[in-house]
Amino acid sequence: MIENFKILAEFVKDISSETPDVQSYIFVKENISKYHLNIDINSKPLKNKMIEINTTLKFEDVNQNEKKSYFEIVYTSVVKVNEEIKDKKDLEKIILCDVQNKIYPNLEKTFLNLLHNSGFPEVKLDKKIDFTQLYEQRSN
Asked: What is the pTM assigned to this prediction?
């Protein structure tokens, strides 16, 4: 299969871990299983068929507890799209699905390192994020 894009660069644009105090840390340690992972992907065109794609992962408490931690990473990919790609749907699939599947191992490793280095070494992502499935659900 010929890829319709090439990743020129990928890097952490922004990373954040916030735990305000020890009481919050202890509370979060006991309740982190209730935390929810949110994904947001946005892009902006650059020159010469290049696109900046920002994939944001937020791991946060869905309940409005006073004691909580907050974790976020913005992972940026710079992608050059093949000249033949003209259709908006093809471009959308590249941005939301193909690039995400390619960068996911690095993104997941970096995000888990953030959580583990923030004092939560027991946190694991139970299942891989299936960007193909998410894309197909979005399209329907």
From this structure: 0.90
